[in-house]
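All the exercises in this workshop are built on plain-text protein records. Sequence and backbone structure share a record, each on its own labelled line. The question running through the whole workshop is how a given chain folds. The record below serves as our worked example for the rest of this section.
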Amino acid sequence: MADKCTAEFNKPRDECGVFGIYGPGLDVATLTYYGLYALQHRGQESAGIAVSDGKKIHLHKGMGLVSDVFSHVKLSDFQGYIAAGHVRYSTTGTSNLLNAQPLVFRCSRGMIGLGHNGNLTNFNELRSQLFSTGSVFQSSTDSEVIVNLIARYSQGNLADAIVKTMIDIKGAYSLVIITEKSLIGVRDPHGFRPLCLGRKGEAYVLASESCALDTVGAEFIRDVEPGEIIIIDNKGLTSRKVLQGSKKARCIFEYVYLARPDSNMDGFNVNKVRREMGRQLAREYQVDADIVIPVPDSGKTAAWGFSLESGIAFEEGLMKNRYVGRTFIQPDQSARDLGVKLKLNPVREVLEGKRVVVVDDSIVRGTTSGKIVNMIRESGAKEVHFCLSSPPIIKSCYYGIDTSNKGELIAANKNVEEIRKFIGADGLRFLSLEGLLNVFGDSQDNFCTACFSGEYPVEIPDAAVNGKHILE
């Protein structure tokens, strides 16, 4: 999976975004299309929409961006009143059409469509058990394990089948499920991956992020609670809490990089959190400099916070080419080197003769950071100080974010001074883990910080640690 981190300057990637709507009388397919557009940052490899008309679930999915997959599809032909949508960036399973979602299947309860954001840590174990008892798999994704378990338990009430499935599976999962007559949302008991609930008139909407609710004109109601199942049908909305007592472990990296800044998650606005990260970074790293510049776009809000706290002028010294698109999803090394220059261009008039603080959200391998430092120097900067609004990433994620393995994580193999020399900066500073957690006040115990601390809230089997949870 290492090559996939080159998609956006070697940054970790979330693997999925999910969207669902129960809306009699609405064009649910088109609304789902726009909802997925708003979640495109969460997955760019494939997209799909499943629509139920009350009797049958109709599905269209394909490889590529939302606009590519549905460019020749007439969404008005998808008649129905319930829909589920999915955008995917794979962490478990290869990138191919069989793994694209939603997954639609038949069981004793009828047709079901499922979209999954997250990663199961006991995927191998469960898949082997299901294989041994006659289950058939078409894909290599862990989401199909969830599908098989729900089907296996679905002889009775579907909600009970989902509860039994939740007892079996471990790790991270936010699910949007549609049946022929209902929409269901599920969040794992630790709340690793986000999921929220909104309302558009009499319709209900589920989405990975609240920005998708805004896009389709839905009002944010609340976040789906960890361990909660929400069922929406012609009787209205019902909620069921299961697996209570688990420690909350919401992904802190959603706030650092993954989520859109205009989203609200579990009581926090992402933009405000990132600005405070920048302020905290400036408190921890006092430096004499002339300007603060962000690495666009993910470093912009933190850089603004750094500027506000430090009093150092904010400037935009790097311009991003927004039309490169997905050209560099899986490049070879030569394309990767060229890709940085195509993505970013330094503004010499801003940088020349200046002592520059560069603010980015994180460093994974360090190669791209080194190229950025070099570009700034070549534009005449006197000094380059590289500041990160998160702690060093020292461990891999097994809960739904595609990070490099430990051997490729620069902070797992070099100390701060060694990293500084590697990227060629005059100064280097990471936000401390304590400083990052302080941003969240009294809620700081409710987050997963495994990539920074190595403390995993859910046990990781040896097979997963060795990379064997990824099937090719």
In short: Residues 126 and 145 are 7 Å apart (CA to CA). The chain has two domains: 2-249, 272-441.
